Structure formats: structure tokens, C-alpha cells
Amino acid sequence: QVQLVESGGGLVQPGGSLRLSCAASESIFNFNGMGWYRQAPGKERELVASITSSGTANYQDSVKGRFTMSRDNARNMVYLQMNSLKAEDTAVYYCKAVTRSTYLIVWGQGTLVTVSS
User: How sure is the predictor about 54, in pLDDT bands with cuts at 50, 70 and 90?
Assistant: First the structure.
């Protein structure tokens, strides 16, 4: 019954910025860690960024220096700030969590990011 809901996707020009949000239906302390993934049509889903319970974030090389993942424990939210967007960033972005109690993998429904002129 745990749910994740992404928002913030849309159309943006190259070089622009977007902030994605992931709202959890319960305390994010119930998760071992959380991550942002993305999937373009016809391609495999790939990890973009992850964050630990202590707030340590890691990034795929292609987004380092451009994307920032953060968490707001009080609001049960995680974010992905995306700057200097490129056409190759176009994809459906998904929020992922793994529960502490059962190690259940939970996915959000995804939000579409389109980077185009």
C-alpha cells in the first residue's frame, strides 16, 4: 500500500531547468534509500541518482554537476533538481524506494521530461 507519486515533469528548452518531486505516502524513514531512474522509449531504465537515509547522494556520470538529489524528511519528499538540461535527458523519470521492513521495491508512476527546442 506504499505509494510514490512523481510530479514536475514537462517541456523545457535545452539549457533550461526543472525540479522533479516524489511524494511518499508514509515516512521516508521507512525506506533504506531512494533513487531517481529514467527510461527513454526503446531503451532500458537507468539509474540517475540515489540518496541514502543520511542524505548522501550519488549520481550517474552524465548528470554530475547538473542534477542534485535531495530529501525533505519532514514532508516525506525527495527531489531532483535538473539544470542545464540536454536533449538526451528526455525520458520518463521514476522515483524508487526500498522498504526497510520487507525490502519491497516500490516505483512511482513516472513523470515525462521532454527537452526540446
Answer: confident
Closest C-alpha among 30, 32, 10, 29 to residue 19: 10
DSSP the chain: ---EEEE--EEE-TT--EEEEEEESS-GGGEEEEEEEEE-TTS--EEEEEEETT--EEE-GGGTTTEEEEEEGGGTEEEEEE-S--GGG-EEEEEEEEETTT--EEE---EEEEE--
Residue 74: pLDDT band with limits 50, 70, 90: very high
Looking at residue 116, its amino acid is S
Q: Return d(Cα 89, Cα 9) in angstroms, integer.
A: 12
Facing residues of 91 across strands? 113
